[in-house]
Structure formats: structure tokens, C-alpha cells
Design a protein that fits this description.
About 60% of the residues lie in helices and about 15% in strands. It has helices at about 5-15, 20-25, 35-70, 75-110, 120-135, 170-190, 215-225, 230-235; strands at about 140-150, 160-165, 195-205, 210-215, 240.
Length: about 240
């Protein structure tokens, strides 16, 4: 039987491969906070694109039922036929809306890539991310960028960034996290990098470790596209040592 980590990895791959139904089925078998978060966001994305239309369809169906119930017996045959036609039409609209909603979800999750392909070596991935960090988070004091493939990192392909914090307030520290996570997310989207998670190792100016902050790349990309609010994104972070 597959472990929770293996199931989560499989669900991630299915989402990225646009196999939404299969991914949701796997997530529903996992008793884990991250799985519940992914299912919630799937529902949010679909409902945000369908709620208005579904509400109208439901209201129309109820109206038809009330009208049919109030007609005299001599009109029952005609009313039943009309209701059957309305039901068939409503089912067709509902099916089409589900398909459209799923397609919208796939588009949102699909990385916006250029023609650049995944680098062939670990060092190439590090170079891509380091370049992105220098451009998009150039004001942050980054000491080191490392890449660990799945075999070295318990099944996760990760980017490790060690940096010296320059902030003394909670708001400033959070802004540092956002800048660095977004820099990596931009690199992933631009170059289709094969990365699962980003680990920030925050140090003091003297080099003492202050804390570790971990983000899932899927959450970073959803935040960048506006699907996750800043608050919701911060809630997904795994923070220790602070």
C-alpha cells in the first residue's frame, strides 16, 4: 500500500498532468492537512467559476416545479413533457459547466512556460534559481542556493536557500519570505523547473540559524496567480525555530 508521501506526490503529478479527477480521488484517501488544503482549493477554484450559473440553474428548476404543481390536472401531460425537456436541458448545462470548470482549474495550475526546457543537471537548476533570486529578490542577502533531488531529500525535489535576514520586525521578515519564494516561483514558471518545495534557512547577521520556512511550489504558484491570498499562502507555510 502506498504511503501518504507517495500518494501526495502522485496527486501532485496528476494535477500538473491535468488529470484533475484522478488527483482528487487520491487526495480524498489521505488523512493529512496538506491534502485537505489542496481539496479545499480545488473546490474554491471550481465554485468561484460556477456558483453564479449554478445558482441561476437551481432557481429556474425550482420555479418550473412550482408552476407545474399549480396547473390543473388536464395540463399534467403537457407539464410533465415540459419538465422532462427542462431537466434534460439543465443536465446538459450542468455537465458543460463541470467540464468548463475543470478546464479552468487545469489552466490555472498549468505553469506559464517559455520554450526553455528543464535543465539537464542539478547545477543548471541552481543557476536558474540563483539568477532569478538575484533579479527578483536582489535586495535580500542570499548566502547559498542548493538543489536536492528526490533521492537525497526523502522523495522531494527541493531548493534550499540560506540567507541573512536584514529585518528586525515581523512584517519585514515576512516580506523577505515572500520576496524569496516569489523569486523561485518565477523561475519555476519561466523555465518549467522540476521542483516540489522551497526551504528558506534564515540566519542572523552573525550566521546563527534563526528558523526554517518551507513552502510547496504549487502553493507559491497559486499565490502568484492570485488564487491564494497572501494570508492563505502564509497559512500553508511550515515554519519552525521561530
Amino acid at each position: 500500500m502506498a504511503s501518504t508521501k507517495e500518494k501526495m506526490q502522485k496527486a501532485r503529478e496528476l494535477i500538473q498532468a491535468k488529470k484533475y479527477i484522478e488527483a482528487r480521488a487520491i487526495l480524498r484517501t489521505i488523512d493529512h492537512d496538506k491534502a485537505y488544503e489542496w481539496l479545499d482549493r480545488i473546490d474554491e477554484v471550481l465554485s468561484s467559476n460556477q456558483s453564479a450559473v449554478f445558482g441561476t440553474s437551481t432557481q429556474n428548476t425550482r420555479t418550473q416545479d412550482n408552476i407545474s404543481a399549480s396547473k390543473p390536472d388536464r395540463e399534467n401531460a403537457t407539464s410533465e413533457q415540459e419538465n422532462e425537456n427542462n431537466t434534460e436541458s439543465s443536465c446538459l448545462r450542468t455537465t458543460l459547466l463541470i467540464i468548463v470548470g475543470a478546464l479552468v482549474f487545469f489552466i490555472i495550475l498549468q505553469p506559464r512556460t517559455d520554450d526553455v526546457r528543464v535543465p539537464s543537471s542539478d547545477q543548471a537548476i541552481v543557476d536558474q534559481v540563483a539568477d532569478s533570486v538575484s533579479v527578483w529578490a536582489g535586495g535580500r542577502n542570499v548566502e547559498q542556493v542548493r538543489y536536492l533531488d528526490a533521492s537525497d531529500n526523502d522523495g522531494e525535489r527541493g531548493i534550499f536557500i540560506t540567507y541573512l535576514t536584514q529585518e528586525s520586525t515581523e512584517a519585514g521578515i515576512v516580506d523577505e519570505w515572500i520576496d524569496l519564494f516569489e523569486a523561485v516561483g518565477t523561475s519555476v514558471g519561466a523555465h518549467d523547473l522540476d521542483i516540489d518545495s522551497v526551504v528558506l534557512i534564515m540566519q542572523s547577521s552573525s550566521g546563527r540559524d534563526l528558523g526554517v520556512i518551507i513552502a510547496d511550489v504549487i502553493d507559491i504558484r497559486l499565490y502568484q496567480r492570485g488564487t491564494l491570498t497572501r494570508g492563505r499562502f502564509l497559512d500553508t507555510l511550515d515554519i519552525s525555530g521561530l
